[in-house]
Design brief:
352 residues; alpha/beta; Rossmann fold; Dihydrodipicolinate Reductase, domain 2; 8-stranded mixed β-sheet; 6-stranded parallel β-sheet
């Protein structure tokens, strides 16, 4: 039995993590910490969590906690994860893992030194269809049947995440715990362009890297009027990406891997739609279309995987050691685009 503590009681913690971990037979929710006492009390009561703490350090001092899920303000995540690893707890943290590669690499080193499981919440890797797509892309690259890989194209235009209203919130203000970001390249403030890239588009870059099992190097970036366009290279072909964080009907995130004679397309579902999974297709030059989609909510599969990994000491599907690359891409985006203007972030829902 894995005894789990939750650090952060907001929207994402409730919808994505408490709802899923409470259904894993091998896990037990034993504690919750949040700086908002009324919210912490309400959430703990709803999910039958026996112990509530005013802060994360009190929770981490609890010897009955084996692992923690960290769902806090992005500027605070790295410092809290560091405290958790130093306390000997396995960690699943929401993305981004940090707002600088300095902090990100330090977290990976801490987990490695202490032999702890450290996973980052790129839950889309746990979508079954996306796993099939990754295998098929590797097969197409290996056997050459579809010809050379010509382009990887990634788009994230946001939309309705289907969170609904089945979550608790109070009028208590969100409290900044006062942790700073080490060696920040861009402005780490919430909803700044740099923060927006790491919080929104890092899901998409992570997915592109996972599907192709290859690194991405950015060579150009432009931003302005609420949009950003990036270009770069994978080892085998060019990379093109665009993102805007809009609250519009539907959900609009996709990755296309284009070969000479086939295109593998992944369209992700609204992340909080429990009944939806990615739509995964392979369109061949002869007109044939394979549908590789498979049912299963990615967040639920992520929760089960984290519990199993923590119990058995196995490598996560989205380990911190890999997620450093997405923080580095965010820094590259900022360095390349900071002279082209300011990205105007549109209104968004609160995310924790």
């Amino acid at each position: 039995m894995l005894r789990v503590g939750i650090i952060g009681a907001g929207r994402v913690a409730q919808i994505a993590h408490l709802a899923t971990l409470s259904q894993v037979a091998e896990a037990r929710l034993v504690s919750l910490a949040d700086l908002r006492p009324e919210l912490a009390s309400l959430v703990a009561a709803r999910w039958n969590i026996p112990r509530v703490y005013a802060g994360h350090r009190e929770l981490l001092a609890d010897p009955d906690v084996d692992a923690v899920v960290v769902v806090t303000q992005r500027s605070q995540t790295a410092a809290i994860v560091a405290d958790a690893l130093r306390a000997g707890k396995h960690v699943l943290s929401e993305k981004p893992m940090a707002l600088s590669t300095v902090d990100a690499r330090a977290l990976v080193q801490l987990a490695r030194e202490r032999g702890l499981v450290y996973a980052v919440g790129y839950m889309k890797r746990h979508d079954r269809g996306i796993g099939v797509a990754r295998d098929r892309i590797a097969q197409l690259c290996g056997d050459g049947a579809a010809g050379a890989m010509l382009l990887v194209r990634a788009t994230m235009n946001g939309g309705d995440d289907c969170a609904g209203s089945d979550w608790l919130m109070t009028t208590e203000p969100r409290i900044d715990a006062g942790f700073t970001v080490t060696a920040a390249v861009g402005d780490p403030a919430p909803k700044s362009p740099f923060d927006q890239f790491l919080n929104v588009f890092s899901h998409t870059t992570n997915l592109a890297r996972f599907l192709t099992n290859a690194p991405i190097e950015l060579t150009s970036a432009e931003q302005g009027a609420g949009n950003a366009v990036v270009a770069g290279n994978l080892p085998e072909c060019p990379f093109a990406g665009s993102f805007a964080d809009r609250v519009v009907p539907g959900w609009h995130e996709s990755v296309d891997v284009v070969f000479e004679r086939a295109t593998v397309s992944v369209a992700t579902p609204p992340p909080f739609d429990r009944s939806a999974a990615a739509r995964v297709t392979i369109a061949h030059a002869d007109g044939a279309i394979e549908d590789c989609s498979l049912p299963g909510w990615a967040f639920e599969r992520q929760a089960r995987a984290f519990v199993a990994d923590a119990m058995h000491g196995s490598e996560p599907l989205a380990p911190g050691s890999d997620a450093v690359a997405d923080v580095a891409l965010g820094e590259a985006f900022w360095r390349l685009s900071e002279r082209t203007g300011v990205l105007k972030s549109p209104p968004r829902r609160p995310d924790s």
